[in-house]
Amino acid sequence: MLSSKEMEDMGRAIEQIGAAKACITGPIIKETKRIVLENGLDAAELYASQLAGTDENIELLRIIKIFRKNNLSEKAIAQVLDNIDVIESGKW
Fold first, then answer.
1. Residue 10, Cβ density class (10 Å: 0-12 exposed, 13-18 middle, ≥19 buried)
2. Given CA atoms 77, 81, 87, 92 in this order, what sign does their dihedral have?
3. Are the beta carbons of 19 and 89 closer than 8 angstroms?
4. What is the pLDDT of residue 91?
5. Shortest CA distance to 5 belongs to which of 71, 84, 57, 81?
6. Distance between CA atoms of 47 and 70, rounded to whole angstroms?
7. I need a labelling partner for 50 at 20 to 30 A (CA). Which of 15, 24, 58, 60 fits?
């Protein structure tokens, strides 16, 4: 369970991610979540940079920057990634 502070931080991050026409595929989201939980956000950023030249790379790096800016825990990041399609659809 996330603390109230973590929930506030996560809420700000979700708001900043906002509705967008993301093109991050399910496998990329799943792999990013696994990397965050096992190795942290720095490793996830490295993974995203390996997708260079793709729209997924640009969007994933933008989202990772938002996670950093809001100091999200790995657990909070995993929850946001689980719901990224809904968040970016604007139906959150």
1. buried
2. negative
3. yes
4. 67
5. 71
6. 20
7. 15
Residues 6+ apart with CB under 8 A from 15: none
Rounded Cα gap, residues 65 and 59, in angstroms: 10
pTM, 2 dp: 0.85
> What is the mean pLDDT of the segment spanning 61-85?
93
Residue 38 burial by Cβ neighbours in a 10 Å radius (0-12, 13-18, 19+): exposed
In sequence order, the 6+-apart residues with CB closer than 8 A to the CB of 79 are 2, 10
**83: phi then psi, degrees, rounded to nearest 5:** -115, 15
For residues 45 and 67, is the Cβ–Cβ distance under 8 A? no
